[in-house]
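In this supplementary section we document a worked example of the pipeline. Step one takes a protein sequence of length 396 as its only input; no multiple sequence alignment statistics are reported here. Step two produces a three-dimensional model, which step three serialises into C-alpha cells for compact storage. The input and output of this example are shown verbatim.
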Amino acid sequence: MDPITLYSAPNALARDYSRFNVAERLLLTGHSHQAWPDVAFEAQAEAWRDAAEHVDDKWEHAFGRAERVRKGFGRLLGEPDAAIALAGNTHELVVRLVSALPLAKRPRLVTTDGEFHTIRRQLDRLAEEGIEVVRVAEAPVETVAVRLAQAVDDRTALVLVSAVFFDSGRIAHGLGQVATSCRRHGAALLVDTYHALNVVPWSIPAEDLLDAFVVGGGYKYCQLGEGNCFMRIPPDCSLRPVNTGWFSEFTALASSEREGRTAYGAGGDRFAGATYDPASHYRAARVFDFFDGMALTPQLLREVSQHQIGVLARGFDALDLDPAIIDRDRRTSLTEIGGFLALCSPQAGRLAAGLHARGVMVDARGDVLRFGPAPYLTDRQLSDAMATLGEVGRAG
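The serialised model returned by step three reads:
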C-alpha cells in the first residue's frame, strides 16, 4: 500500500473500519486502543457459529486460530517459528514466569522506574514480601541499557524492561547489552514489546535477544482487541512455573520430566494456561490476515506513524501554548519515539476531559497527555484534533 493514500481524504483504509466510523471521528487513542477493522466483527460471529455448530468439538477449530495468532506474533518478532505462549493479558504470563524463578536462591529482580503497571504493581507487591526489587531510572534513556546491565549480579533472578517506554514513548536501544550481562550472571531477561509491536519494527535476532523472554499483545497497534497477549519462550527453556494451567498437559506426554514430578508441555505450552474465550483468537487471526492482505507491514506502519507524529508535533508547536500548561520534549528526535506523541502537562487529565467533550479522544496518564494516531486517520483529522487542543488549552 502506498502511504500517500492514507494522508488525505478519503483515507484508503477508513472504509475497512466502518463499524468504528473512523472517517467521522477524531480517535487518537491509538496508543491505548486502536480501532478494529470490520473483519474482526465477522470473526466474532464466526466464533459463535463454530460454537453453535460444533459444541465441544469447537476446540479443534479454536486451536487452529490460536496457532495462526502465534505465527502472526512470531512474524512481528522476526522469529516466525518462535515458541509462544498465549494468554488473555501479559500479567498472567509475567506471573507464570516469576513463579518459575529460583527466588529463594536469587531473591533479586531488576527493572526500571518506567515500566507499565502490569510489571510495576506486581513488583511492588513482591517487594512487600521481601523480594529485593532494584529500579534503575528510565532517564536518560540513552544509557538505560548500560545501567541495567551494570545492576545485574549473581543474586539477580530476572531483569524486566520495555522496548518502548509507555510513559515517554522513548525507544530503549542496546538491550542486547542487558542480555549479555544476564547471560554472564545466570539471570533471565524479560522484554516488554507491547508499545513497540507493529509500530516500531523490532526483531529478536537483530536485537541479540535470542535467549530472552518477550511479552506483548495486540490491544494497541496490532488492532486485535482484548484477550490477545503472548510470551515468547527462549529455546531449551526448562523452567517449571508454579502457576501452571492444565492446557500444558496437552503436549506433556513428550516431556522429559522425571516420573513423579509435574510434567510440562513443549515450547510455549510450558507456560500454557487453561480454558479461555477463543473468540479473541478468531478475531486476531482474521486481523493478521487483513494486515497481510493490505501489505500493512511494520516498516510501512512505521513510515506512516512517523509522518503522523510529525504532523501532530508541528501542529502542537504552532499553537504556541503556555509551556507551564503543556509542553513537549523537543530535545528528543521524533525518530526516537514510538507510536504516540507525549505532551507533558500538570493538567493532563483536565485537558483530556476537555478534548473528549469536544469529540477528540486521547489518552492521559499522570502528567502525560498522549496523542496516538493510527493509519486510518488523515492529516486533516490530526490537525483538527490539535487545533481543538489549542481551544481547550487556552480555555483554562
